[in-house]
Amino acid sequence: MTEAEISEEYLAGYARILADVSATGRRLTRDELDSRRALGEQAAEAGHGLRALVGRHLAATRAAWPGASAAPDRVLAAVEQVVDAFAEGYERAQRLAVRQEEAARREFIDDLLHGRSDLGRLVARAERFGLRLSQAHAVAVAEGPEAYEDTDHVTRRVDRELLGRFGDRRILLATKDGRLICIVPGDQTDVLNHFAKQAHAATDGGRVAIGRAHPGAGGVVHSYEEALNALELADRMALDSPVLRAADLLVFPVLTRDRQAMADLVLSALGPLRCARGGAEPLLETLSVYFDAGCVSAEAARRLSLSVRALTYRLDRIHRLTGSDPADPMHRYTLQTAVIGARLLEWPAKEI
Question: Which residue range forms the structural domain that includes residue 178?
Answer without folding.
Answer: 139-249
